[in-house]
Design a protein that fits this description.
By secondary structure, this protein is α/β, with parallel strands linked by helices. Helix 2 packs across helix 7. The chain folds into two domains: about 160 residues, no CATH class; about 60 residues, no CATH class.
């Protein structure tokens, strides 16, 4: 079996099922839940109609970088990657190599929104408290912070070669304009198809905005709103740009058109449920999402 290609791991406690997602603190939560009495279970035997299935999620673009770095390290290619620009260029637009970086949407397909996703922050204690409060309500347990073995957590040393690979992967990805252009085309097509009049010309790509008659450009830029696009006028000429906050990722606004875009949509959905600023576990939307209201 190729490294990182093991089946999807899952643990069960009654009707609650934890699904292990690599690069999402899965070692910490998997080992702690096992120590708390959870048992290994077959992911493909989950009762999706009755089980409460949960997993953790991080920014999908950040996970891409971490996952690729992990697999490169596992294969003993760390030094080769750091010193070989041809290999770096080869992986510039690579989305995944194994399960460590495989998009959530590819891993779980049509079950993607049947899982209750818990977003992770950089605060381990907050991640634990969020998780344990949900488990206490769903599993009738009484977990406290003392029930978690913090020694089971592990972080990549900021000066390690694996971390340097992750940083280089991020730089290479951000320097690649192909996906940012594809993402802008995607946003533009959604906007234009929704607002165009029957007599307006076809304009399937973002660059086609500049070929539209000026009165149409003006109407689009001044009268119609788009979450992901912004229009700026320079010297009486309208310019089309991708809004920097059009998606909630920490690194970039570009996304792989077919795969990572689905993950980013999911991630934004999860952050909206949890309130991305406070992660307020008592919020009504979260209680509704897990059937507690």
């Amino acid at each position: 079996m190729t490294p990182g290609q093991e089946p999807i791991g899952a643990l069960r406690n009654g009707s609650a099922v934890y699904v292990r997602v690599l690069k999402c603190a899965s070692t910490f939560f998997n080992d702690n839940l096992l120590a708390q009495g959870w048992e290994l279970t077959d992911y493909y035997k989950i009762d999706w109609n009755n089980d409460f299935v949960f997993a953790h999620i991080i920014d999908p673009v950040v996970r891409r970088h971490k996952g690729l770095a992990e697999y490169i390290h596992m294969c003993g290619l760390t030094q080769l990657y750091l010193t070989n620009t041809k290999l770096q260029n080869l992986l510039t637009s690579c989305v995944f190599l194994d399960r460590h970086s495989m998009p959530y949407s590819t891993l779980f397909n049509d079950r993607l929104y049947d899982i209750f996703w818990i977003p992770l922050t950089h605060d381990y204690e907050k991640n634990i408290m969020t998780t344990q409060e949900i488990l206490n309500k769903k599993c009738q347990t009484n977990l406290t912070l003392a029930d978690w073995d913090l020694d089971l957590s592990h972080c990549t040393d900021s000066g390690s070669d694996k971390k340097l690979v992750e940083i280089q992967l991020q730089k290479q990805w951000e320097s690649n304009t192909y996906y940012s252009e594809k993402y802008q085309d995607h946003l533009w097509a959604e906007l234009y198809d929704a607002i165009r009049d029957s007599h307006w010309p076809d304009a399937p790509l973002a660059k086609d905005f500049y070929n539209l008659p000026q009165h149409i450009q003006h109407e689009i830029a001044t009268l119609h709103q788009s979450i992901g696009l912004k229009f700026i006028i320079q010297n009486n000429v309208w310019e089309l740009h991708t809004a920097p906050d059009s998606i909630k990722t920490n690194q970039i606004t570009a996304a792989h058109y077919n795969m990572l875009q689905k993950d980013i949509n999911l991630y934004n959905h999860v952050l909206e449920i949890f309130d991305q600023t406070t992660y307020d576990i008592s919020a009504t939307k979260i209680q509704q999402s897990i059937g507690l209201s």
